[in-house]
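Section 5.1 Outputs to date
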Amino acid sequence: MLTVIYPIIKTPSGNRRYAERILKGLNEAGYAHKEVGVKKIEISIGGKPFGGIISQSLALKLKSFNDHPIHSLVPELTPKNGDIVTLHDIIPFIEAAKFIKNKYDSKSYEMMYSNALNARKLLSSTNYGKEEIIRELDIPAERIEVVYESIDHSKFFPDMENPYPHDGKIHLITVGDFNPRKRFDILFDIVSKNSDLELYHIGPVNSWKERASKLMKFVSNYPNIKLLGAVGDEILRKYISNADAFVYISDAEGFGLPPIEALACGTNVVVNDLPVFKETIGEIASISDTEHFEDAILRTVKNKKDREQLVNYSFKFSLEKEINSLIKLYDSFS
């Protein structure tokens, strides 16, 4: 019987939402499986996250797993006899100088990936991600399976209750925590220089307190940038659905769900020029480098795509499709 090992995470995060979707999808499909949750304990030291990877790795060692296949939904929860692991990204390997700065970082990522890279199957959420794994980690192509991630269409759909003021501004929305790679510093700088734009940011601080403090100090001088913090799904959906555009300037992503969630809400999307976005939403989104990002926003708002077209495109990433692909993989182990 399938065993699914998933993280128990208190704060909002992409890994938490991924785990919630996979477990929901398997239960809705009626696919027999065991669920094993491992709590992540993370604190902030010096304004940065500390201890999360280590806490999960240590907790995992206290458990034993006998039923197969074993699917670990994050790499740090891969036991030595793991069969399948989802590699959401390998950004720490590609940008090691940014992520591995001391012995603690090195040990943490060693614990995170050591068992994972020895699993029988590695899951990548894109073909580009698969190519990165082959190129950067020298993993044979036959050990890597591409399964596109999904969004939860029961949470993301057009909602016409407009929360924005009728002030004649171009209302923009962006989503995410304050991880430095999200590059809200660049986005905030762009918006601060154009009073016709009004940007709303939704997302938790999580453990990025130092980064959040700096950005909050910056935006305090610009009334056209509003930080709403973490909000519930209903409020999030209203802001996304009624924005003139969803903007996302992250400079590194394994998949990048927020822009697809915005499409599901019928909102036009402008994203940074990343290979992963070209693969997943290049046919429907506006893609621009950071230097010309403001121009891309203005063009997108002026030439909006049809709402129905955007929503229909988002169903390429339905939960049902993702679960069907995973079940096919699970069954191949029997």
